């Protein structure tokens, strides 16, 4: 799962990234209004943490831009501005949650998880597809009650496929999902092929075959049966 942390306090941003990275999120950072606006217009995210007071502009304008483009990404406003007016305006524009500073990082993590679960997996802690069962809080994958041991990248790729079931997803979008904006600096996306190959092999060994279809020249599709 990929997050964008829009926060101009460098120390706070670094601590958020360190904690959420340990929770297996891919984290990108933006420290100014212009940088944040560029990223939300260029890249896709599963959740955005948005400070309101930014060098160069107001975070609420970024939120308006996100929703104007009909981007359904989850947005949590994280700000010292804790007035009722700011909170109401943010929620009216389309924020999903509001967390006042200072806050505990585990609470932030749980709010992120709740938004992603609600938006992508119908508010369920258990995700099922083609005989695969995924316990989202535990990050535990099994088939027929038997565990399937995946690497972090394979697990994220599996969630990405199931979250986009029966849709063609491009190699570029998978590379961006797995590596964030670092994908733009890569010469090729060969690492995506490697993770797909390994994921398919592990699923086939568990008895789940032919779920990932190669769509020639376009990308891949998770076939829901």
Automatic annotation (TrEMBL):
Keywords: DNA-binding, Phosphoprotein, Transcription, Transcription regulation, Two-component regulatory system. Signal peptide: none annotated. Residues 124-224 bind DNA. It comes from the Bacteria. Residues 2-116 form the Response regulatory domain. Residues 124-224 form the OmpR/PhoB-type domain. The modification 4-aspartylphosphate is found at residue 51. The keyword Phosphoprotein applies. PANTHER family: REGULATOR OF RPOS. This is Response regulator transcription factor. It comes from Bacteroides gallinaceum. The lineage of its organism: Bacteria, Pseudomonadati, Bacteroidota, Bacteroidia, Bacteroidales.
